[in-house]
Design a protein that fits this description.
mainly alpha; 2 domains; two-stranded antiparallel ribbon; 3 helices; 2 strands; about 45% helix; extended
Amino acid sequence: MIDFIFDFFEAPSRPTKESASPIAGSSPNQDSSVDARMRELERRHEQLKLVTLAMWTLLKEHSGLTEGDLKKYIEKVDLMDGKLDGKAQTKEKVHCGGCDRYILATALACPYCGQALKVKSPFSRA
């Protein structure tokens, strides 16, 4: 199952510069790049929502778990870093060779420059 999810996200379609709309006050190349990256992040966000919803529906139908059970597990995972803040924090970071920044080891791609990272699975740490 994890391999299916990884394969689903491994080859994202990239918007072209021609399809990007400019943002006021920026250079044309920067505008295209920012707009294209935003659309790519939105597309990936929608894919993650789809996979998450499908997994929850499957789990709920086959296990008898309830929305309340899910909420408890979400809070338990959220507290793994000691804070109930709606974020999954990790102190594990890796260096991005594309932009020379440090990013979360669980990332599939650098959120700053978009360079794909080589990981075995989207749920494994580097």
